[in-house]
Specification:
The chain has 15 helices and ten strands. It folds into four domains: about 5-50, no CATH class; about 65-110 and about 230-385, 3-hydroxy-3-methylglutaryl-coenzyme A Reductase, Chain A, domain 2 (Alpha-Beta Complex); about 115-225, Hydroxymethylglutaryl-CoA reductase, class I/II, NAD/NADP-binding domain (Alpha-Beta Plaits, 2-Layer Sandwich); about 390-435. It has helices at about 10-25, 25-35, 40-50, 85-100, 125-140, 145-150, 185-205, 250-265, 270-290, 295-305, 345-355, 360-380, 385-400, 405-415, 425-435; strands at about 65-70, 75-80, 105-110, 115-120, 155-165, 170-180, 215-225, 230-240, 315-320, 325-330. Helix 9 (about 270-290) runs antiparallel to helix 10 (about 295-305) and helix 13 packs across helix 15 (about 425-435). By secondary structure, it is α+β, with helices and mostly antiparallel strands. The strands form three sheets. It has a four-stranded antiparallel β-sheet with strand order 3-8-10-9. It binds (R)-mevalonate. The site of (R)-mevalonate (MEV) has 10 residues, from helix 9 and helix 12. This is 3-hydroxy-3-methylglutaryl coenzyme A reductase. InterPro entries: HMG_CoA_Rdtase, HMG_CoA_Rdtase_bac-typ, HMG_CoA_Rdtase_cat_sf, HMG_CoA_Rdtase_NAD(P)-bd_sf, HMG_CoA_Rdtase_sub-bd_dom_sf. Pathway: Metabolic intermediate metabolism; (R)-mevalonate degradation; (S)-3-hydroxy-3-methylglutaryl-CoA from (R)-mevalonate: step 1/1.
């Protein structure tokens, strides 16, 4: 097969034809499948086609809702886009568990975003520092054209600092820039500011003769950082340790075992990764449903989990004065304006469901989704084990895989109501049912 040049210029149908011919033995089935996932509403389909390049179809994820989340004394129903069968059920269970125990309490601890201009300078450090001190105000002013609207709303650039990284990499310095981007995630705003600043910085360095033949200053790149340790939110639940479960003795035992499980995730990276993965089940699902950038959130959150030099749990648990406390602290750079938020109909729908939150409010809802998910997972793990609930939810996937009819689904789910679900057990039961009905 030859490489295809100018692929992006082909029409959608031409792209599908090319793909089907080159990669699929059954061209018609491949064609049919792709079209099955198109939306019949042409305008809606066109909107999705234009989100990215070379779109040939849509990729569906289930969109579920988890009701009964009491957050700062207000009830929320949380939208979740996720394929893993037990996640929405687990979130709903955790929401219900905490509903009559005061619910979740949250606080935004900071909203600072970060961008950096990475450059090399071969001259004397002192000359660079003097130059930066003299020009700092000018650099900030030179961005007014881009920042003025954001500034009017109370945002903009907070600070520009020069950072010497030469002890780690020869000649390497940074301009480390902090931003307030209010309700926008701010990626475009930050990157536009940085690229303009880098240009001004270089031009001024030439004009002011900071660079010469022997002292070169080279901009390597200008880009936002997805590590935002000062764009931080905290969520917490608290309740008397002997009143978490109906029986006080069981309750205290449960609380201690739960705390031990969280402590294990604090000190053991193998466990911490899975512990945090469970948290991200909740976080990513809401991040996706609200049209935010889950890769950015993932990258930032995991970096934060390793901030002390060792990958650790994002949640902590303790008993103090007989009260059980369970909390999370995570960096979340989110937007409720810009990006997909006003474009994708389901994103608009999600935001409306959440009461059209601003970015700070959304940070709090999403932190709660992460904490709730972790509570549900650790509760299952330290009591019944995770497979019971997980496989119950997975049962339908197994039945669908074997194209079970409505009657078969009913018969098998009834059969497994009080039994442990396993893949082989379900297949066996289905075969038996089918043989009996021949
Ligand atoms: C599965 O998606 C997530 C869990 O493994 C999380 C955990 O172990 O805490 C259940």
């Amino acid at each position: 097969m030859k490489a295809k040049k100018g692929f992006s210029k082909l029409s959608k149908q031409e792209k599908i034809n090319w793909l089907s011919q080159h990669y699929f033995s059954d061209i018609d089935t491949a064609n049919k499948l792709l079209k099955q996932y198109w939306n019949t509403d042409e305008k809606l389909q066109k909107l999705h086609d234009e989100f990215t390049e070379n779109t040939i179809t849509n990729y569906y994820l289930p969109y579920g809702i988890a009701p009964n989340f009491l957050i700062n004394n207000k009830l929320f129903t949380i939208p979740m886009a996720i394929e893993e069968s037990s996640v929405v059920a687990a979130a709903s269970n955790a929401a219900k568990f905490w509903l009559d125990k005061g619910g979740f309490h949250t606080k935004v601890l900071g909203t600072e975003k970060v961008g950096q201009i990475h450059f090399t300078y071969t001259g004397k450090k002192q000359d660079l520092e003097d130059f930066f001190q003299q020009q700092q105000a000018y650099f900030k002013d030179s961005l007014t054209e881009i920042t003025k609207n954001m500034q009017k709303r109370g945002g903009g650039i907070n600070q520009i600092s020069l950072v010497d990284k030469t002890s780690e990499l020869e000649h390497y310095y940074q301009l480390h820039v902090t931003f307030e981007t209010l309700d926008a995630m701010g990626a475009n705003f930050i990157n536009t500011c940085l690229e303009k600043l880098a240009k001004t910085f270089k031009e001024t360095a030439i004009n002011k003769q900071l660079c010469s033949k022997n002292n070169s200053l080279e901009i390597i790149m200008s880009i936002l950082s997805n590590y935002v340790p000062n764009c931080l939110v905290r969520a917490e639940v608290a309740h008397p340790a002997d009143k978490l479960l109906p029986n006080p003795e069981d309750s205290i035992k449960f609380a201690h075992k739960f705390i031990e499980a969280v402590k294990i995730a604090e000190i053991e990276p193998y466990r911490a990764v899975t512990h945090n993965k469970g948290i991200m089940n909740g976080i990513d699902a809401v991040v996706l449903a609200t049209g935010n950038d889950f890769r950015a959130v993932e990258a930032g959150v995991h970096a934060y989990a390793a901030r002390n030099g060792k990958y650790s749990s994002l949640t902590t648990a303790k008993i103090e004065n007989n009260v059980f406390y369970f909390s999370i602290e995570i960096p979340l750079a989110l937007g409720t304006v810009g990006g997909l938020t006003s474009l994708h109909p389901l994103v608009k729908f999600s935001l409306e469901m959440l009461g059209n939150p601003n970015a700070k409010e959304l940070m709090q809802v999403i932190a709660v989704a992460g904490l709730a998910q972790n509570f549900a997972a650790v509760k299952s793990l330290t009591t019944t084990g995770i497979q019971e609930g997980h496989m119950k939810m997975h049962l339908l996937n197994i039945l669908n895989q074997f194209e079970a009819t409505k009657q078969e689904k009913l018969a098998i789910t009834t059969l497994f109501k009080d039994k442990t679900v396993s893949h082989s057990g379900v297949v066996e039961a289905l075969e038996k049912l089918r043989n009996e009905n021949i």
